[in-house]
Amino acid sequence: MLILGIESSCDETAASVIEDCRTIRSSVISTQIEEHKKYGGVVPEIASRRHCENILGVTRRALADAGTELADLDGIAVTYAPGLIGALLVGVNFAKGLALASGKPLIPVHHIAGHIATNYLSHPDLEPPYLCLVASGGHSHIIEVLSYTKFRVVGRTRDDAAGECFDKCARAMGFPYPGGVHVDNAAQSGDPKAFRLPHPAVAGNEFDLSFSGLKTAVINLLHHAEQKGEDIDRNDLSASLQATIAEILTDKTMLAAEALGYKRIALAGGVSANSGVRAALSKACERRGCSFYMPEKSLCGDNGAMIGCQGSYNLLAGITADESLNAVATLSMDEI
């Protein structure tokens, strides 16, 4: 089975051909980071325009690298939610056109489900059920993966996502966009105990997360130091911030795993590339005798392979769409 996966939810235009659910035949990504860097973040209108310019070439190259043609495919999978609406519309309408022209099934894929699926590409032995922490710039969820196509959200951020906290704190520290990777690099030379940062409390659901208070604390710390003419060691602050975010994510995930009886735990999303988060969750799983899975770093960011992988399982489950498929900017995993 060959599935073409198309991803355009933010600022990466990506396409990939996946064979038999878990083998990457090709993966092509066109990133816009350098263009958006001058603005300090993604500009939706620019992102949409670049997707329009890049999507045909990216898809052609993915097919060529895989040594296949449109006629050889068994389906065309595309991210339809959530994300920047203009960016999503480019991918959805392009995939609809390909499906209509080729007569191949159109397969809708939820972006977060795609991130979860990266672990299938990295770990051939992983099968549901298990618990997955999905952390990225726009999402922080603790999810029960009940089957390849059924999910239950047991915890989520009430405000900022973990990746958003990284990026906004990085900007306040003077790092260029995207800031998360610069915080990670600086943290390697810093003292994670140099600053005592808050672990925001959340009432109601013991598995829910919050990062707004942590972000505010870091920004206030920097502003107060500036007003007093004091210098703050960015390496130490980066190390302290990274350790705090990693502790929050790890503690909540392990709390949910213990309460729900899971011994297999996975990590996914853009923040899964962060060395502090990877190490903290890995060590916690080792201490508690849990199996731990995380994707290769090359699969942590947005890519077409994750959409092709999840799309393969969706097709096997009979999840397809017709020409009425539309992009959706906000859609909870509970609603798919």
Topology:
Blueprint: E1 2-7, E2 12-19, E3 23-31, H1 33-37, H2 44-65, E4 75-81, H3 85-102, E5 106-110, H4 111-122, E6 130-135, E7 140-145, E8 151-156, H5 162-172, H6 179-187, H7 212-228, H8 234-260, E9 264-268, H9 275-287, E10 291-293, H10 304-316
Parallel strand pairs: 1-4, 4-5, 6-9, 9-10
Antiparallel strand pairs: 1-2, 2-3, 6-7, 7-8
Structure description:
This protein has 336 residues and is of the alpha/beta class. It has ten helices and ten strands. It has a five-stranded mixed sheet with strand order 3-2-1-4-5, sandwiched between helices. Strands 8-7-6-9-10 form a five-stranded mixed sheet, with helices on both faces. Strand 4, helix 3 (85-102) and strand 5 (106-110) form a beta-alpha-beta unit. The two termini are 24 Å apart. The mean pLDDT is 95.
Helix content: 40-55%
Structural class: alpha/beta
Count of helical segments? 10
- C-alpha termini separation: 24 Å
Uncertain regions spanning at least 5 consecutive residues: none
Strand order of the largest sheet: 3-2-1-4-5
Rg over CA atoms, rounded to whole Å, is 20 Å
Brief rundown of the structure:
44% of the residues lie in helices and 18% in strands. It is an alpha/beta fold.
Could you name the key traits of this structure?
336 residues; alpha/beta
